[in-house]
């Protein structure tokens, strides 16, 4: 039992050390940034972030991507400056053309459905941003668990729900 606890403590210490080891974090971020189309200064990564088709992704300055973020960039994904993607956020720029599937039985991907997230936005835990969505406003908060299916054109608002709608204006 004592050996088991010692191993657990060492693992926690190792994980803690890695998180606060600037050299290792900088290498991880540098490697991540090289895969992207564009990436600004001061990117912070917390945990594992998965990007499908990273050459279609642009990220601005001072952004934070947290553990279990998924960016599926079959189409272009642009993320502005000072954007936080919280735990488990999913940005999905593709899907099936349902009308074509019903008509022909063929599952064909929707093409040319870029996603844009403006400056100073916070996408809450487990929120989903679907194909073709533009968050044009600044200081937009997407509540945890929200599913954003249409554009958000206003600034300083909170959107929540499935589908996401403006629930509060911030001043």
Topology, please?
Elements: H1 2-20, H2 22-35, E1 38-39, E2 44-45, E3 49-52, E4 57-59, E5 64-65, E6 69-72, E7 77-79, E8 84-85, E9 90-92, H3 98-104, E10 115-117, E11 122-123, E12 128-129, E13 134-135, E14 140-142, E15 147-148, E16 157-160, E17 165-169
Parallel strand pairs: 1-4, 2-5, 3-6, 4-7, 5-8, 6-9, 7-10, 8-11, 9-12, 10-13, 11-14, 12-15, 14-16
Antiparallel strand pairs: 16-17
Q: What features would you describe in this structure?
A:
- By secondary structure, this protein is of the alpha/beta class.
- The relative contact order is 0.10.
- It starts with a helix and ends with a strand.
- The protein has 3 helices and 17 strands.
- It has helices at residues 2-20, 22-35, 98-104; strands at residues 38-39, 44-45, 49-52, 57-59, 64-65, 69-72, 77-79, 84-85, 90-92, 115-117, 122-123, 128-129, 134-135, 140-142, 147-148, 157-160, 165-169.
- The strands form 3 sheets. Strands 2-5-8-11-14-16-17 form a 7-stranded mixed β-sheet. A 5-stranded parallel β-sheet has the order 1-4-7-10-13, with no helix packed on it.
């Amino acid at each position: 039992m004592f050996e088991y606890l010692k191993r657990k403590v060492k693992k926690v210490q190792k994980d803690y050390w890695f998180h606060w080891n600037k050299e290792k974090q900088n290498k991880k971020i540098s490697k991540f940034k090289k895969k992207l189309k564009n990436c600004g200064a001061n990117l912070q990564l917390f945990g594992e972030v998965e990007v499908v088709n990273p050459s279609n992704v642009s990220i601005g300055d001072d952004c934070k991507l947290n553990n279990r973020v998924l960016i599926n960039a079959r189409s272009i994904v642009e993320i502005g400056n000072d954007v936080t993607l919280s735990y488990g956020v999913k940005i999905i720029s593709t899907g099936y053309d349902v009308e074509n599937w019903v008509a022909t039985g063929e599952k064909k991907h929707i093409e040319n459905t870029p996603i844009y997230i403006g400056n100073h936005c916070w996408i809450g835990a487990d929120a989903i941003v679907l194909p073709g969505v533009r968050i044009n406003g600044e200081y937009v908060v997407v509540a945890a668990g929200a599913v954003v299916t249409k554009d958000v054109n206003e600034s300083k608002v909170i959107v929540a729900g499935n589908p996401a709608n403006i629930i509060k204006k911030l001043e």
